[in-house]
């Protein structure tokens, strides 16, 4: 289970930096023999490993920047050790970016989930949505090739536990840019040959232009047709009841109009239960959720859809 709580970091950045640095300092010295073991086995080094790189930051150099849609950039970084390294981030895990705005006393720390293949050497890739006046996202969007970003981490993933038998299904729910941890977790689960868990993924976006990882998800669906279902919910003007219908794509994915609401969740849950599956991973976590606060409340709040379906708080993991 995650030792760190990224949401708390966001709310109390100064507190978070102090806690991270002091905890990491002690633990680093206890952990050094593991690094020697890694290199003895000739495994790639990890750019970020715990707890060392909570204390000591790394600089990642930007190699390319691509504008993906109206507010999101894909930024590719080179790892400091080049092809001898992998990032060290696990499926659903994240890095903490750090920068100190001009005139500020405290650094801004924010979690971001890499989207590259995590065993790929020499590279790390982020998809970053820019928020109006967003401290970290505006800074990251300003980076040009050749410039560097300070990072710490890795932040652990969701504490998901694989199920080797075929009877398990889980529900993953993403809102907007919250897709990145959900996508990373999905890829990790599907890549594990020992895991037979089936995934129902529901992704709520404002408009179809915000479906920024569609190609990648459709590719995963083609590769794992029995293990992944994706439902897209479009809530903006295109998703209004009287708007022209949103065409389904060639691979048969479905667009729903409106928010990720009770009827969508109920329908997806009935697919899980109708197929006679055990709902939950091997630890009993039924739902993994990452989205803006309003969506998290509507889905997993006290009066939310999941509570009405009898899903308890401890059966829901919020990134
Ligand atoms: C585990 C984890 C992984 C994440 N991975 C990614 C990722 O891969 N890509 C990515 O783009 N983001 C990701 N995020 C969100 C990211 O960490 C920042 O919260 C986000 O970029 C906003 O930070 P900021 O400093 O730019 O905005 P702030 O300066 O904190 O806020 C600026 C304004 O934006 C609003 N705002 C901030 N965050 C959100 C939000 N999530 N939804 C709606 N409004 C918001 C605030 O209310 C405020 O009005 C992740 C979050 C978590 C918890």
Automatic annotation (TrEMBL):
Its EC number is 1.6.2.2. The keyword Mitochondrion applies. It is found in: Mitochondrion outer membrane. It is a single-pass membrane protein. May mediate the reduction of outer membrane cytochrome b5. One of its GO terms (cellular component) is mitochondrial outer membrane. Belongs to the flavoprotein pyridine nucleotide cytochrome reductase family. Keywords: FAD, Flavoprotein, Membrane, Mitochondrion, Mitochondrion outer membrane, Oxidoreductase. The keyword Oxidoreductase applies. Its main location: mitochondrion. One of its GO terms (molecular function) is cytochrome-b5 reductase activity, acting on NADH. FAD binds at residues 110-112, 127, 129, 135, 137, 180. It is an enzyme of class 1 (oxidoreductase). This is NADH-cytochrome b5 reductase 2. InterPro entries: CBR-like (IPR001834), Cbr1-like_FAD-bd_dom (IPR008333), FAD-bd_FR_type (IPR017927), FNR_nucleotide-bd (IPR039261), OxRdtase_FAD/NAD-bd (IPR001433), Riboflavin_synthase-like_b-brl (IPR017938). Its cofactor is FAD. It comes from the Eukaryota. Residues 55-161 form the FAD-binding FR-type domain. Pfam families: FAD_binding_6, NAD_binding_1.
């Amino acid at each position: 289970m995650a030792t760190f709580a990224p949401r708390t970091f966001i709310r109390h950045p100064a507190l978070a930096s102090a806690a991270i640095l002091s905890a990491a300092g002690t633990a680093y010295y206890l952990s050094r023999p593991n690094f020697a073991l890694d290199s003895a086995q000739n495994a790639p080094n990890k750019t970020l490993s715990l707890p060392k790189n909570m204390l000591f930051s790394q600089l990642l150099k930007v190699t390319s920047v691509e504008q993906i849609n109206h507010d999101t950039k894909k930024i590719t970084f080179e790892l400091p050790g080049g092809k001898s390294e992998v990032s060290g981030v696990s499926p659903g895990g994240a890095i903490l970016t750090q920068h100190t705005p001009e005139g500020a006393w405290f650094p801004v720390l924010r979690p971001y989930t890499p989207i590259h293949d995590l065993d790929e050497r020499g590279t790390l890739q982020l998809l970053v949505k820019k928020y109006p006046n967003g401290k970290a996202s505006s800074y990251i969007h300003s980076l040009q090739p050749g410039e560097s970003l300070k990072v710490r981490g890795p932040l652990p993933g969701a504490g998901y536990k694989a199920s080797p038998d075929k009877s398990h299904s889980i529900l993953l729910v993403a809102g907007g840019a919250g897709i990145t941890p959900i996508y990373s977790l999905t890829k990790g689960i599907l890549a594990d040959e020992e895991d037979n868990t089936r995934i129902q993924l529901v992704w709520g976006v404002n408009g179809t232009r915000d479906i920024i990882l569609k190609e990648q998800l459709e590719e995963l669906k083609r590769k794992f047709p029995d293990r992944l279902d994706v439902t897209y919910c479009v809530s903006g003007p295109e998703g209004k009841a009287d708007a022209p219908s949103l065409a389904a794509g060639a691979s048969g994915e479905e667009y729903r109009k409106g928010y990720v609401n009770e009827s969508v969740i109920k329908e997806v849950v009935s697919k899980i239960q109708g197929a006679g599956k055990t709902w939950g991973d091997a630890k009993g976590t039924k739902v993994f959720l990452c989205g803006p606060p309003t969506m998290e409340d509507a889905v997993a709040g006290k009066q939310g859809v999941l509570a009405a379906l009898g899903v308890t708080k401890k059966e829901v993991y919020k990134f």
